[in-house]
Amino acid sequence: MTLRGQTGDVQTRYVVNGGALKSIRESEQFRIVTGKAAATIECHTTATFDNFEAQVATYAMAKYSLTLLVDNDWARFQQFVREWHEQRGIVSSPIQMAMCPAYQQIIAMGKPAIRLIFRQLELEGDDPDHWFWALSYLTGVDPVRPESRGNLKKMRADWMRWGQENRNAW
Amino acid sequence: VLIGCVGGKKIGTLGSWKPEYLPKLTSKTCRVTSPVKNSYNCIGWAATGSEAEWWWPTPLGFWPATGFWPAGVPREETVAAFLQAFGTVGYAQCKDGKLEDGFEKVALYANKMPWGQVVPTHAARQLPNGKWTSKLGPLEDIEHKKPADVNGPIYGGIVHYMKRPTQQIATAAESKSEK
């Protein structure tokens, strides 16, 4: 997913994957954020696209501006990830890790969680986390080769390969 | 004061774990020897000194088999299966964790789960200097003075010691260890 935003004095324009923006609800609440160099005006809005809603935070500062688009599902997922890390603590058992309430809540997000987990795996790069149980549960498959078991990098590679070959399945 | 905090999150803490999980650890009994890393866990670290594998007997079938487990050893979370797994890399049970010339030792920990079963939770490996190295789940490696330093509500306590003739392999832990 590609999200781009542009803010100017007169208009705000948002583009997602080349179009399909349905509406933007401007918040009436503005906040002045005092930065090191200058004051920033923060404005929160809600943008509705074809298949999801996103919170938009617009920051305007002097001559420069920056628009951040936040995917609500992604934000919720990230909150669960933080809670999961807190809950699993120092345990080594992938079974106990998967039993943590936050991990179960990620699974309970259903099919939308699949793209979020793949995105998370991309971000984690060479040090992937234990997403394989959730992926297996959500997709109904286990593409990890027996020789990859226990090697998280190889398990990630097996899953990423499966993800690319089966994009229409998620 | 920042104490051995490599990849840790809170100033003044020993590492990124919650102190209540490991109540015996202090700046006098342990130091952090690695950043947080997901790729390996305590069992693989104790058994092989390698950062390559996450050892755990996730059962085949209902669970996706996400952990490495030696061939021929039951994939079950029992003390017997863990002793057998360490046996595949040359460890045999011994009576204590005292430093012995020509041997390296491992301590196996277990705890009673809420459903009543006693399951293995952790393993620590003795270093040539007599101290111990532990990988704390997905968090940091630490070096600690005594094996019981990591006893607590998560790992429970030591249930077995094992030893094997010292291997001629230089592990990351040993190279990181202070004499």
Structure commentary:
The complex is a heterodimer of chains A (170) and B (179). Chain A is built from six helices and six strands. Chain A has 170 residues and is of the alpha+beta class. In chain A, the strands form two sheets. A four-stranded antiparallel sheet of chain A has the order 3-4-5-6. Chain B has helices spanning 42-48, 79-87, 172-176; strands at 30-32, 92-94, 103-112, 118-126, 132-135, 141-144, 157-165. Chain B has a seven-stranded antiparallel sheet, covered by helices on one side. The longest helix of chain B has 9 residues, at 79-87. Chain B starts with 29 loop residues before the first strand and ends with a helix. At the A-B interface, helix 2, helix 5 and helix 6 of A face helix 1 and strand 4 of B.
Spatial ordering of strands, largest sheet of chain B: 1-6-5-4-3-7-2
What is the molecular shape of chain B? globular
Task: Please write the string of helix (H) and strand (E) elements of chain A.
Answer: EEEEEEHHHHHH
On the 0 to 100 scale, the average pLDDT of chain A is 75
Query: Gap between N and C termini of chain B, in Å?
Result: 24 Å
Main-sheet strand order of chain A equals 3-4-5-6
Report Rg of chain A.
19 Å
Number of separate strands of chain A: 6
Task: Give me the number of helical elements of chain B.
Answer: 3
- How does the major sheet of chain B shape up? 7 strands, antiparallel
Sheet-strand content of chain A, in percent, reads 25-35%
Task: Specify the overall morphology of chain A.
Answer: globular
Q: Percent of residues of chain A in helical segments?
A: 25-40%
Strand residues, percent of chain B: 15-25%
- Rg of chain B from C-alpha positions? 16 Å
Element order of chain B: H for helix, E for strand? EHHEEEEEEH
Biggest interface = A-B, 27 and 35 residues
Biggest sheet overview of chain A = 4 strands, antiparallel
Low-pLDDT runs of 5+ residues of chain B are 1-12, 175-179
